[in-house]
Design goal:
Blueprint (H helix, E strand, L loop, with lengths): L4 E5 L21 H18 L6 E10 L36 E9 L2 E12 L2 E8 L7
């Protein structure tokens, strides 16, 4: 059973210009959420191979897009994740702009490349981040 590392962070500044790119060119998490996920992934990788002292993030790719994206300005496309209130009656807080989404992180660990599946799940106190080492490399 793979070990999961969880934490909580705010999704400040996560809205990408032009919406979500499903082409897999980059991850969706940015700013404080990216830094939080990075610390979780690198800590998890340190646990997986404590002998290696050199590791860095090579790439992040969106592999499961959020089913819902709220307009942070509270416009007519905004909606409530909680299901309460009138969708256009408030500004959606940054930590609630996306529903669950998943990224694949490529990590350079000493002389090898390893991959993590990083899941972001919004919650009442922020976004929970979990990282799981993938046992097989992803398809090209």
């Amino acid at each position: 059973m793979p070990l999961l590392v969880a934490g909580s962070a705010w999704m400040a500044g996560c809205r990408m210009p032009g919406g979500i790119d499903l082409g897999g060119r980059s991850g969706l998490a940015t700013g404080a959420l990216y830094r939080h996920a990075e610390s979780i992934v690198l800590a998890r990788d340190q646990e997986a191979d404590p002998k290696c002292r050199q590791r860095q993030v090579l790439d992040t790719r969106l592999i499961e897009a959020p089913e819902a994206e709220a307009d942070p300005r509270g416009g007519h496309e905004s909606f409530s994740f909680s299901g309460s209130g009138t969708p256009s009656s408030y500004v959606v807080p940054p930590e609630r702009r996306y529903s669950r989404f998943v990224e694949r992180w490529a990590i350079q660990r000493c002389d090898s490349e390893v991959f993590y599946r990083v899941t972001y799940t919004p919650g009442a106190s922020g976004t929970d981040v979990t990282a799981e080492l993938e046992s097989t490399p992803p398809p090209p």
